[in-house]
Specification:
CATH class of the largest domain: Alpha Beta
Helix content: 25-40%
CATH architecture of the largest domain: 3-Layer(bba) Sandwich
Strand content: 25-35%
Disulfide bonds: 42-47
Domain Pyridine nucleotide-disulphide oxidoreductase dimerisation: 346-453
Pfam families: Pyr_redox_2 (PF07992), Pyr_redox_dim (PF02852)
Shape: globular
Family: Belongs to the class-I pyridine nucleotide-disulfide oxidoreductase family.
Distance between the termini: 68 Å
Number of strands: 22
Radius of gyration: 23 Å
CATH topology of the largest domain: FAD/NAD(P)-binding domain
Protein name: Dihydrolipoyl dehydrogenase
Bound molecules: flavin-adenine dinucleotide, 1,4-dihydronicotinamide adenine dinucleotide
Structural class: alpha/beta
Largest sheet: 7 strands, mixed
Oligomer: single chain
Length: 464
């Protein structure tokens, strides 16, 4: 039986980053991955293909607005197969890049599905055969998969999960998206930009639950302006039909009424659930919570010594960068260092146009906790760079303790996902709005809206 200091199960952003860092720290490491390529959900069917299609579709949509710049574009066409080909090449290059990084760092890539028959042993099953690996420590990084909607079967042809919605061969006539969360909005906007009518049906009376409510409203307004239709406060209770002709039954939440909606494709995007089946958690006695997430302590240890877990399969935000931070902190702790993740400053970004970016507490959470706070807001309409770019929708909002210490920041606007980085750094260093406001920001730049929002929290915005 081949022996390793660490065997990682799962080669996604959590697992592959942990494996590389552990190898850097001098451990002998194997990473077991079943899907045939490294990079996990993120590189294969998540972050990267979705961002590739968001970029391509944004370029196509932008053509419609070039007339305002005095540019005429006649005869623009859409070659969806070429767009998908570009996306697939990006995915292929990135996943091969991880294999290269494994070789460079001496991580052994073991292809197959892993399970843990007993502490210290990983069984790898592949093509009917199996092998055992001896492991000083085991790290479970098996990620997540789309949560199913009861009574609805995802066939990836007509009723799609995000994976199917990233690989359609034709632009749907009417795509109904179930769930106004991150996936629903990002992929809804891709297909809307490419010409589909897109209706987003959401159970709650708002979009993007978990984000600051005021900023989510701005996002809803901007996305509606760009063509998405929203039906909020509706629960999908059934889907009938098939082959490009589907009828959804919707129940109005809190009312006794039902409605129907016709579609040729449906995207189910109602959240994701941890992947742990087949690992042998029950036999090992590894504790999971009521939603199936593996329970861990502050050092990522499961209830069984020598077995650790990180990323989407443990409680917390289901984000690639959070999984990476988990992985690094976990193996650094194993190596005797002080691995640490500040979960209060993990940013989240929705890559729609406009982008929706957030870090820290929302205003709703502060109110609910009875925390005293001050807030500042600055609309991009008053930012000169946003005006010259014609990207004036949205605002920057900051929330701070009465002494000015930043507690949360929320942005709806162009490049919000990049702008939030300044506020993440400020928060992680315990900075106050005064310090951000007194930092010289280049002019004209979108970042001036961040400075002005901080000035506004102090009651002295200049351009508002
Ligand atoms: P995963 O990436 O899910 O990787 C787990 C890996 O383990 C998988 O490859 C799986 O095949 C493998 N595995 C599972 N069980 C076994 C087993 N028993 N043996 C061997 N291998 C196994 N996050 C962001 O931060 N930014 C984004 O822009 C973003 N966009 C997204 C877009 C979409 C459409 C989706 C679906 C997700 C997106 N995410 C994004 C979320 C992100 O993909 C996940 O948070 C991230 O991939 C989690 O990393 P992980 O390593 O925990 O798990
Ligand atoms: P989500 O949790 O973001 O949103 C799901 C939405 O579906 C919620 O608004 C919820 O109220 C709604 N919903 C649930 N049941 C419903 C029902 N029966 N009918 C109608 N609406 C219903 O989940 P989503 O969008 O599937 O994404 C999963 C995770 O993937 C995200 O939480 C995020 O962590 C990750 N992700 C991150 C991205 C990014 O960082 N840019 C991009 C895509 C995914």
């Amino acid at each position: 039986m081949k022996r390793f200091d660490l065997v990682v199960i799962g080669g996604g952003p959590g697992g592959y980053v942990a494996a590389i860092r552990a190898a850097q720290l001098g451990m002998s490491v194997a990473c077991v991955e079943g899907r045939g390529s490294l990079g996990g959900t993120c590189l294969n069917v998540g972050c990267m293909p979705s961002k590739a299609l968001l970029t391509s579709s944004a370029k196509y949509a932008e053509l419609k607005h070039l007339a305002a710049h005095g540019i005429g574009v006649d005869g623009a066409t859409l070659d969806l197969a070429a767009m998908m080909g570009r996306k697939d090449k990006i995915v292929g290059d990135l996943t091969k890049g991880i294999a290269f990084l494994f070789k460079k760092n001496g991580v052994e890539h073991v292809e197959g599905w892993g399970s843990v028959p007993e502490p210290g042993v990983v069984r790898v099953s592949r093509d009917g055969g199996e092998m055992l690996l001896a492991a000083g420590n085991i790290l479970i990084a098996t990620g997540s998969e789309p949560a199913p909607l009861p009574g609805v079967e995802i066939d990836e042809v007509n009723i799609l999960s995000s994976t199917g919605a990233l690989a359609l061969a034709d632009v749907p006539r009417h795509l109904v998206v179930i769930g106004a969360g991150v996936i629903g909005l990002e992929l809804g906007q891709v297909w809307s930009r490419l010409g589909a009518k897109v209706t987003v049906v959401e159970f709650l009376d708002r979009i993007l639950p978990g984000n600051d409510g005021e900023i989510a409203k701005l996002a809803q307004r901007a996305l509606t302006k760009r063509g998405l239709k929203f039906q909020l406060g509706r629960k999908v209770t059934g889907i009938e039909g098939g082959a490009d002709s589907l009828t959804l039954t919707l129940e109005r939440v809190g009312k006794e009424t039902t409605e129907t909606l016709e579609a040729d494709k449906v995207l189910v995007a109602i959240g994701r659930r941890p992947v742990t089946r087949g690992l042998g958690l029950d036999t090992l006695g590894i504790a999971t919570d009521d939603r199936g997430f593996i329970e861990i302590d502050g050092s990522f240890s499961t209830s069984v010594p020598g077995i650790y877990a990180i990323g989407d399969c443990v409680p917390g935000p289901m984000l690639a960068h959070k999984a990476e931070e988990d992985g690094i902190a976990c193996v650094e702790t194993l190596a005797g260092q002080n691995g640490h993740v500040d979960y209060n400053t993990v940013p989240g970004v929705v890559y729609t146009d406009p982008e929706v970016a957030s870090v820290g507490a929302t205003e709703e959470a502060l109110k609910e906790a009875g925390t005293d706070y001050i807030s500042g807001k600055f609309n991009f309409m008053a930012n000169s760079r946003a005006r010259s770019a014609g990207e004036t929708d949205g605002a920057v909002k900051v929330l701070a303790a009465p002494d000015g210490t930043l507690l949360g920041a929320h942005i709806c606007g162009a490049h919000g996902g990049d702008l939030i980085a300044e506020l993440v750094l400020a928060m992680s260093k315990g900075a106050r709005v005064e310090e951000v406001a007194r930092t010289c920001h280049a002019h004209p730049a979108l970042g001036e809206a961040v400075k002005e929002a901080c000035l506004d929290a102090l009651g002295r915005a200049i351009h508002a």
